[in-house]
Structures
1.
Amino acid sequence: MLFNSISFLSHFIVFYLIYYFSSNRIRKYLLLVFGVYFYSQWNLNASFLLFISIIFNYSLANYLSDLSGKKRRTFFILGITANLIYLGVFKYFLFVWELFSDLKIGFGFPGLEWKPEILLPVGISFYTFHNISYLIEVYDKRILPCKNFFTFVIYDLFFPLLLLGPIERPGNLIPQIESEQKITKENIWNGISLFVWGVFIKSTIADPFSRYVEIQAQGFESLEPGILWIVAPVIAFQVYADFFGYSLCAMGLAEMMGFRLMNNFKRPFFSSNPSEFWAKWHISLSTWLRDYVYIKLGGNRHGFFRENANLMVVWFLAGIWHGAGHGFVIWGLYLGLCLVLYRSLKHYGFVKSGNLFQSVLGVVFTFYTFSLGLLLFRIHSPSETILILKNLSHLPKLSSIPLMILVTTIPLVAFDLWQEWKDTDRPQFFISTKPFSFLIMFFFFFLWFSLFSPFGKQDFFYFQF
């Protein structure tokens, strides 16, 4: 069930009416049942795999709390390793298998004829990181392990963020599950506003842009020279509208139920440098990698060279996390190099803060650096990198710029500008308990959707990760 579908909306309305009028104790069971039902709609077998992960991590965290010394550390390492193997088998085994087959062919041996069929559970990268952060927090004694099994199941099966995040920290979500959910009119109107805005930008920007990209970038060798200078920003807005749209839907649904999720995006396209950009894009993943990988490796505590080496390790892992393929690895290393280059320029005094011209130039450069990097997601073999570079060696024709694309982005850019002007920490419509303001906003969205959005639904972009 996609958030932007009649099927999900009809199911959620029935669920929410029962949830709203139920006691707090009953609400917990409703969250559990709807979470199981929601995830099982994607694949029933994947639900069993998720429950295996839930039982393992719940049991291990409680066992860790009774241990100390070397034994505690040993079981903690085994737990993290088991989660990574679980993720690796389902997400990366086929890639390694095909790579091994290609290597055999390269050395003159016959390739592997048999190819295993392995199910890739939806959202496995997100809920595995969810569980790893839980084990780390318990091991570091920042939180106590859940004694109530159902609380932990709800933590892992909380349906607004189950498929695509944000990768919510256990220290934020579990206490909310354990406490009483108080639902105010402000919760309801703000939640509905966030959900409607999320569905709107998904339907009117992400889906049409996705179709444009598929038409333009089916094969790099047959593209019009220079067209990737135009296609790359379209991909950037497609991914942003798609993932930001999902995050807004998740935040909105949670808020309607009395929960507050972390904000996953904070106007990243206004960032003037790569460091700022990754502090505002996919914030839950960026901070997860910072806290659980970068800092654990030593962070910036061992000199400038070691700091940059740690960054490269983090972004290599970020690339692999996004998917098993040549393009994802190259993408991670590319972004790591961009960050290292910027930090080196800043370290040696080539970048100065407070320079308006440099800031504006930085916004354009940062946006295009990110946009061009997204082309790497579409690489199926290293040789296609050369085709991308050859295409980018030409300038595009002005006639190739699709006017409809520029017009379609207006609501999203205007909204982000408004939020930037208000300097909000999380998306806000400032309508709270004013239904009339909401109806005006809703009418504008519906009108824009009717004018510009072709009908037809696309899966959320990050489902593949």
Note: The two ends are 17 Å apart (CA to CA).
2.
Amino acid sequence: MTATPARITAVDTFDVRFPTSRELDGSDAMNPDPDYSAAYVILRTDDGDGLEGHGFCFTIGRGNDVQVAAIGALSPHLVGRSVDELCADPGSLNRDLIGDSQLRWLGPEKGVMHMAIGAVVNAVWDMAAKRAGQPLWRLLAHADPEWLVSQVDFRYIADTLTPEDALTLLREGRAGLAERESVLLERGYPGYTTSPGWLGYSDEKLTRLAKQAVADGFTQIKLKVGADLDDDIRRLRTARAAVGDGIRIAIDANQRWNIGEAIEWTTALAAFDPYWIEEPTSPDDILGHATIREAVAPVRVATGEHVQNRIIFKQLLQADAIDVLQIDSARVGGVNENLAILLLAAKFGVPVCPHAGGVGLCELVQHLSMFDYLALSGTTENRVIEYVDHLHDHFTAPVLIRDGHYTAPLTPGFSATMRPESIDAYRYPDGSFWAADLAGQEGA
């Protein structure tokens, strides 16, 4: 008797929020009081192996319920699908969801619905890696280059990156993979930390955390800027005094400025030798970034965490608008679109330094950077993954930092699985933490 193929049976969603605003963790010039949150999804199956696919979108509080609803709206596209077929070709789901004309009308390929598609596509990759018994970085790095190319959507980018280009990059990128994998397993992937630099922190806390970052082996930190120039000058002076001249300090304006402001502000801070200025203006303003880049050199220009899709990244690269490309694991349409973006960066020779932090973003994006190092770019020179030191304990396979480096995760999957007790506690508004908190507010 032929066994019935396993199917997706449920798409369970959760509105998970953490009260980070109370300690001003994550505060910056544009987002003064974020409550780091995850619109979380679990793909359930009827397979006897019990393996599930976990994924999420990152938000900062209000609106997480909207993001959860968007993920839930994708359930009819998933329930009943063959698990084997999905895991053998995650790109099939990506193509179906991106290509659905009525979902597409809500973008196209941008905003809440595009992020929702990324969450469920990432959940499929998580399940595929678990079923293969491998961490996702290894699954991708050892995958057949032709198969990887089949996972990429070349629509709108084929004028710059063709399938043939991608195949050449991936074939050439595999040279020396085994040696690099040994180095990765021994040393890890370099990181940098934003933990000292949140805008709401006192100078004393900034100094203490910056010195601790250096002691922990980090060679780069990042400070939030953009609210008040005099404050930024003081804070950068404080940070530079704390870490010395041999440590890179990046600065991040979180889209706060107009073009002229970005140039004037960055020029005023140039005396402190900032390594890059991140998100100096709107992530959609390609020519604005190019103007800023030309004016503030040798300070580098970085952006990407709010870039909507591979098409905008293509144009940023075509326009010589950025020095550093910052992918985000949960902003675009999942692993498949990030493969396209990594390939574009490799073709243009622009280093990728991912956005992370948030809830679970460090856990996810480490896999993409490690794949990039092993099987595409072949280098970690001038490449670092962002790191912040909170909320990792809510995941079953949290990131492990050793001497300023991300240790390569060995647990099968995409490192996206959140602890059930964390979901139960921080589910909004009826999880145990929020129920008690809201009751306390009512009592007060």
Note: The CA atoms of residues 305 and 328 lie 5 Å apart.
3.
Amino acid sequence: MVSNPCLCQNGGDGLRVIRTFGVAFRGLWSYPVRTWLALLGITISTLLVVFLLAVLFNFKNSLVGQIQNVGVQQIVVMPGKLLNSGKNISEVNLSSLLSYTSVTSTLTYQDAIDVKAQIPEVAGAAPQLETVTRIAGAGKSAEVMYTGTMPDLANMYSLELEEGRFFTEEEAVQEESVIVLGQTIKQLLYGESSAIGSKVKIKGIDFEVVGVLKEKQLIGFTFNERAYTGYPLAANTANLQNASMLFFEAQSPEGLEAVRQEIAKVITKNHGGVQDFGLMAPEGALHVIDTIGNLVTAIALGITGVSFLVSGLGIMNVMLLTVKERTREIGIRKSVGAEWWDILLQFLLEAAYISVLGCVLGLAGSYGLLHLLHSFFPVLTTLFPLQWVAGCLLFCVALGLLFGIIPAVKALRIKPIDALRYE
């Protein structure tokens, strides 16, 4: 195909530039198969990188949002410790965090009671132990996470009830056989019927159902497959005396570090001066999420970014073939007065067209896949920041210009007399 040779003879420089855009577009689609293959490379590269970044970003955003929704006044005590470190989790880097070692739990119900009694700044305390067992009721049975705790847990995690109530402090202390079912367990046993007042059997004991929780889950944790009863009764029936973890809620977010230190002192004293546990407040969890998120993102970018290099080489290969096949056209344009920048701009624009269009298709595919993933995992958000779109488009323009410069320079070096002889 030979473009209009009079392009450079008519109008001013502005009109010539505008016409060059059209010439570049027509020239590019003179070879549709080759163009689509180059487009496919950029599209796949953009799709991989942007979709992966979007998933990581939204996963991190979901975690942070859920932690913030729970509140910033919670302190969690877990079995384990940072080896050879006097720091808490929120103060360490990732390499130190990897030295966090879990140990057999020595946490107890009494630890939680003593902390709440001795530290005025602690508004709530909820020890928790758990074991997987079977629950039977209404002629059906299911596996359940049998969980012992105290009523303060419901306030800490904003557990809402679909029907009934949560058990009381008095019921827990007196080991009354009352239980609160998670939504999944209730549906498995009772379907759409009310469960309040009915009896379920766990560990050979008949429990009265006093409440059913609304559906609620956090990433990596669900309340729906659990059945909650008082800690003392659960400890005795499950033959578990040590808590899996302790939950505390401070009166206010101010001075949270001081409260954490006081909690550590009380529990350490109970354990004979040994701190065989770790404490984590929301900022500690956010620190861990941010550290791991940044590391995974960097690794992902390094791996998927190679695909952009391969796609750029594909663009350069396509453009080199284009220059070779259009040698005669280039000679005609130069012979009728085309300036060097006319030729340079045309081939740079062709490379930029490929990269930008491929980027747009990749962004659209990433957005669609993110929403498709959300339909399977509703807990994952679907944020797609506009700055990503702008940044990706700018990057792809730069990529097209970078890998289009060599073919464009090659076109500039073609002498008109040699080009006119070219067959």
Note: Residues 74-280 form one domain.
4.
Amino acid sequence: MSQYNIEEEIIEDIAGGEFERTPVPKSNLKGWKSFLGMYAGEHAAGTEFIIGPLFLTAGVSAFDLIIGLLIGNLLAVLCWRFLTAEIAVKYRLTLYYQLEKICGKTLVTGYNLANGILFCFLAGAMITVSATAVGIPFGMEMPKLTDTMPNGPTWVIIVLIIGAVISLIASKGYDTVSKAANWMSPIIVLAFIACGVVALGQLEVHSFSDFWNIWGEGSDPFPGQLKYTFWHVVIWSWFANAAMHIGMSDLSVFRFAKKASSGWTTAAGMYVGHYMAWIAAALLYAVYLKSPEAQAFLTNGEAPPVAPGPLANNAIGIFGIIAVVLAGWTTANPTIYRAGLAFQAIVPKLSTFWVTIIAGTVATIAGLFPAFAMKLLGFVALYGFILAPFGAIIVFEHFFSKNAGIVKNYAETANIKFNKSVFWAWAISFGLFYFISLQFDVFLSFVTLPAWLLCGGLFLLFSKMWQKNV
């Protein structure tokens, strides 16, 4: 055995096999197929069963939805390929360790805590999605769009069981998460296609014009929902995963990639999941809206419930129920894995297994409360807006540090625990644009990019002003 291989084994043993605080060695790099399965599985998944119908409740038109999603998802893929994957293969570090080198241990601890908790809430929404399918045979009452609290003991028991299983899978590490996604994603994709085809038949669609007329020129939003225009769809779909691409969270995933070109595999997630699957799920909801039950809700001035399990079951029966359960798993698994890495950066002495179990426990508790799933459009916009500007710190340092004349990885080089340049860049950009969003009722996703750009620019400016010679 070569000295290089011996060193790799020592590194892997220290890092628990996940290389949380060391660059991923060459022997552990993965080809593009590993990422294709993971992204197709993660993004043709539980969120899609919720988001597709929510677009209908927002009153989108056919053009807004079909063309808006086409453009927004392309912008997201370009960010993954030319920002996230490019930087990931250069340094091969987790987001959390790379930020620690720039920000300092004290500052990054706060970020890691917020990041981990927000990922847990997102995973909790996916546990909610799976629970709506598992609960069907038990006659469980489904959560409504306005529900925030658990609606009964059956709901609680089902969520707890699903959360325990998902947490155990995620705790096995990246390899297990990737394999689970590869196994499940073909089944889920097939289910979405089947749901879409069946729904088209139920809606009596015989031509492209019939399909277009499902959304037509759009409509008024349902009670309590925000009206979405073309730009809402483009910007929201671009930044639905803002924390993962421009926010650099997926450095933790692409650090295992052999080449930056693996970033193109995110297109499988965007166009199979965030395009085909969103539209297929919207078709399921369009079928449900014609039912007497849905019409009764609308007559009473209420938005009909968006429960993925019953919608899929109505279209393709037991296969739909299985697909929804698996769809929740394939999103929650990598999300809990990411959350576990965030918590491990705070308590590095804990093993990957135990921090992931902690993350899974938080996610399961969040899954008990349907509000995270039922308000998913707003929650996703908020969590991207909070986390994405930190990614600008990494991006701007990588591409512009030399021209700006600043020291890279300043916290590590200067041996400081709190880089005030990072803190004030984020605080000013977040505070200013969150105030604008609240004061002038601006859709939060509209200010995510300006906040990201301002944060990166201020970081360079403050670093130039405050960095000392080291």
Note: Confidence is low (pLDDT under 50) at residues 1-16.
